[in-house]
Amino acid sequence: MKDLYENTDRLNSPMEAWFTDTSYMLFPIESHWHYFVEILYVTTGEICVSCNEMTYTLSEGDMIFIPPQVVHAIFGVENKKSGNYIVLRFDPNRMDFSMSYLPKVNTVSKLYTQNKDMRLKFDSKELDGFDLKRFFDTCLNEMEEKKYGYDQFMQSHISSLLIILYRYWHEQGIEMEQSVSEELFNIHDILMYIDKHSGEQIRMETLAKKCNMSYSYFAKVFHDLYGQSCKEYIEFIRLSKVENLLLFTDYDLNYISSETGFSDCSHLIRVFKRRYGITPKKYRISARR
Q1: Tell me: the pLDDT tens digits for 224-256?
Q2: For the chain, how far is it from start to end, CA to CA, in angstroms?
Q3: What is the mean pLDDT of residues 162-175?
Q4: Spatial distance between the Cα atoms of 239 and 217, rounded to a whole number of angstroms
Q5: pTM of the full predicted structure?
Q6: Alpha-carbon span 184 to 207, nearest angstrom
Q7: Residue 113 CB coordination number (10 Å)
Q8: In a domain, 274, yes or no
Q9: 271: phi > 0 → left, psi -120 to 50 → alpha, else beta; which?
Q10: What pLDDT score was predicted for residue 181?
Q11: Domain that residue 37 falls in
């Protein structure tokens, strides 16, 4: 069973930017996650982006900020021409600010999971007139030409957008000055373990031991970081893999349930319908029309 985790080369490619022409690439882009920040900017048409359990429709001129460690997928808009878009992806550890009161970029996922109404989709008007088109065109040009000092230029360029986003979230009442102890970062690696072993029985005691925490403390820390219980997160990862298998394979439900950690086909159907409001079979049929 393929993991949702997408490996990113932090050493050799700490930042990337590319143009996606959907006339040469079929939707959807399957559910995945990584430790990079990913920002999409739509140049023409429309696209849909899911982040964890939220779905956003983006039109020309719209941007979406996808925090690290957030499971996301990209879809075309039903009955409409798919849109083209620019992807900017970067290692958040390269973008930390010297001012202590500003949150580390790799903790934005914590802000998002703890504030379900935190805005991720924007257009230029909502960001004090920040010229998103010019920003992304510059990113593409710098990454394509790679002139002397381009990496430092890109860090400064991206930082300018991050400050605008931080300012917006702060003005919307999001508590930006949250501190996250180094101890809590030990739990981040457990996401890869859950992803890799989601098709097996996963015991919370085992996860807590891997993080050198007691069961109760692990449960509290996990919920504080990700806004849901570890059990709920495991179910979400399993269902994301079910969704990928329904969209990209012809495997039957018995096989899918055994591969994704559900006790049987009936269990899968019950949990899937509770989350999506539709059976897996109907979901597959509607997605392939």
Answers
A1: 888 889 999 999 999 999 999 998 999 999 999
A2: 26
A3: 92
A4: 26
A5: 0.86
A6: 14
A7: 20
A8: yes
A9: alpha
A10: 53
A11: 15-171
